[in-house]
Amino acid sequence: MQTLLELAQGPLFRLTFAIMALGLLRILILDIWGAVEAYRKAGDKNIPWGQAFRKSLAWLFPVGKAFGSRPVYSLFSILFHIGLILVPLFLFAHVELWKSGIGLGWVTLPKDWADYLTLSTIIFGLALFIGRVAFRASSFLSRKQDIIWPLALIVPFITGYICANTGIAPAGYQFFMLIHILSAELIFALLPFTKIAHCVLMPLSQFVATLAWRFPPDTDEPVAISLNKKGVPV
Amino acid sequence: MNRVQAAKSILWVVVGFAAAVGITRMIYGLGATTNLNDATPWGLWIGFDVMAGVALAAGGFVITAIVYIMKREEFRPIVKPAVLTAFLGYIAVIISLLFDLGLPWNIWHMLIFWNPHSPLFEVGWCVMLYTTVLLLEFSPVPLEASSRYAKIRTFLLRFRFPLVMLGIMLSTLHQSSLGSLFLIMPYKSYPLWYSDILPILFFISAVALGLMMITLESLVTSHLYRRQVETELLSKLARASVWVLSIYVLTKLTEIVIAGESSLIFNGSWESILFIVEITIGVLAPIVIFSIPQFRRSQKWLWAGSVMVVFGMVFNRINVGGLTMMGITGDSYFPSWMEISISAGVVSAAVLVFFFAVERFHVWETPPRHPEAEPTSRPRFDRVSQVWLGAPSVAGRTKYSLAFLFSFAVAVAIVPGNEIQSKGAVTVPTMPARGGDTLFIDGNRDLYGVAFKHEMHISQNGQKQSCVLCHHMNIPMDKQSGCYRCHKSMYQESDAFGHQWHSSPRGGNIACVQCHEDGRERTAASAKKCDNCHRDLLPDGARIKHERNIAPSYVDAMHRLCVDCHKEKALTLEGKGDLARCARCHETVPPEYMSPGAPLLGNRPYFNRVMMPGAESLLKADD
Fold this sequence. Notes:
- The structure holds 2 protein chains of 2 kinds.
- Helix content of chain A is 75%, strand content 0%.
- Chain A has helices at residues 2-9, 11-41, 49-60, 63-66, 71-90, 92-102, 111-134, 136-141, 144-164, 173-190, 198-211, 220-226.
- Chain A starts with a helix and ends in an 8-residue tail after the last helix.
- By secondary structure, chain B is mostly helical.
- In chain B, the strands form 3 sheets. Chain B has a 3-stranded antiparallel beta sheet with strand order 1-2-3. A two-stranded antiparallel sheet of chain B has the order 4-5. Chain B has a two-stranded antiparallel sheet with strand order 6-7.
- Chain B contains 25 helices and 7 strands.
- Chain B has helices at 3-28, 30-33, 44-56, 59-69, 79-100, 109-112, 119-138, 140-143, 150-158, 160-180, 198-225, 231-258, 270-291, 293-296, 299-321, 326-329, 337-360, 392-414, 454-460, 467-470, 499-503, 512-515, 554-572, 582-585, 615-622, and strands at residues 434-435, 438-441, 450-453, 494-495, 550-551, 606-607, 610-611.
- Among the domains of chain B are: 34-335, Formate dehydrogenase/DMSO reductase fold (Up-down Bundle), CATH 1.20.1630.10; 454-582, no CATH class.
- Classes of the chains: A mainly alpha, B mainly alpha.
- Chain A binds chain B through residues 10-12, 14-19, 22-23, 26, 29-30, 33-34, 101, and chain B through 20, 394, 397-398, 401-402, 405-406, 408-410, 412-415, 417-418.
């Protein structure tokens, strides 16, 4: 167990963290690169930058947008994200680890706040999973990863909560810690290659959509001619 | 997957790995990441990357000389790739050097702080200037891409001839000066490789290696890009290399015979095997192969011959650069995996830039085209995700960045985390100076020291009162204590106080509060001064004042004490202007300290292993 823990805390952590950090940087660069190329190739360079920017902001803080068709689901999603982002970054124990590792520390969450946020993440994660599966329309739209991710993401939160509150399972500390670390590392490694990559791509999403497929004005006619479908209704 | 893509993927994997290791090297330093030490300060990075790298890049000046000076127009198709190879080679050398330098941010020092006596200074300047020349020689090629740069391009092309001349001149200088570097270590280099004409041998072999490197580069790229091999041209290069290699081997063997070292070739030692392998594979066999006209027109033999020369000459540079010194220094060095991966990474990065340049610019007569870039080609789908990855350029960057990412992460995982640290410097204990009226000062007993006229210093500085000028401490139960009593380590600081001893029951047996003020944190600041108890510790009138209980290294202490005073006296005393010069004190080892049993390096009168003028007679007198 001790060896496994050391492996998970040392080399495996460095491996997966490097994959995550560099992997996110990679897709960010590739995305921007693609967007720049799309702009270069765009026939119609009259691009509504301001509109795309406002749209990005609106989606970054989806207060107005989110409550369209499924207000409860949207609310749960927002609450889920709050704990999901805040707890791993600002948990006292995590910041202490960074301090001892690279010598940098930052503000931390009070213990009870961290606990409440952890619990809320677990609960809302489960709720999102149910929301995905139980409603016909959304389960029809869901891919495998859409269903698995809410569950996978709460594993480190559950085990982390158990480890932080040693009263729950005093004998199983090492076991839960191992699961906590390994599940988090699995998330790190998969993060840049799945939908979770939206954590860095989110601000760009509107620009990519805006920049793509900008044909020069009046392209439809020559296209129709070359497809030999002039005058045919679309 | 085609050959170029496969090659690029592998190279990106190597580069990714090396990037992580390179960052580790920069954070943790040489001691923690390499197997280098004081006995072997030049390892793989110098032997392979710098020494061999510069020689491998010699093709640039050789081909430009052939085309622009000798006007052999038929070689024009290989000028641009040769110049590009040379340019990238030099950039690779510089980057490797940055990894090898202990303080890489000081690399600009040679620009300002000139040391015209040093071959390394010359090499540094030449490499810097020649890299600039190569950049100017090559830049018309990328500038071709846009008409915006037409004026700059024409301007550069007008200076092509002077640039070529300058390039040849600079190459001649530093290719040979890399050999001159080793003239300073005649007793460290093995005789079969050491020679007074090492600079000349380096230059000739660089020409041969340059020719063969161009051949090999042309063969490799033809294979990867499925281009027609320029067999006719390459066979001409091979023929030329027969001449150059023959001149090289004749010069080298003649030198060995004249120096009376020929018996060393076949004495069966490790060095003799290295020598035979190097000469046979790198020189003799290629001469035989390329002397036969059918062979040099055959692709297979061109491959074999050029690989042999490149191997042999790189091996030669590694041999000269340190491999053959191990028998003499007694240090067995093998590069660490971090050194190897950084070397491989730098070379791979250079090759990737070469690929980029030939695909993007007009380096070859017909630039290569990716087969999938043709409009008629059918899309291929990624095996894992079953999606089309886009046009070749988009698919390329997607895949190669992934290769880089994963191998970088693997390297980060393998590099030991908190445990990584330098083995540190070896503590060399010091010993008292020996002698009577004249003291011989060599604290570590390596026989490189100073004959210090103790009696003369006393009489000239005012007899009894002069003691405190140097002896600035009377340690307990002692008077005018010897230097070695506190300056206990030759090259490192040492503790002159001994807190452990003072506090331990078997030593001083003093309670904490007897020294440290009660109620305050127990630090050096809250402690009593030493002379509170040891009244006689610091004699009055001492030149040296104490601020800390840490004694500087023996070497530093000696130099500060002597040199500071000598500098003063050199200004004030008449006719003693040279008092502060190194050789004034570091003259020779007095014969009485040179014993027949002294180690090989020790029993010769050198100052820092350079023979001092006039020392030969002393050595003879000793015999």
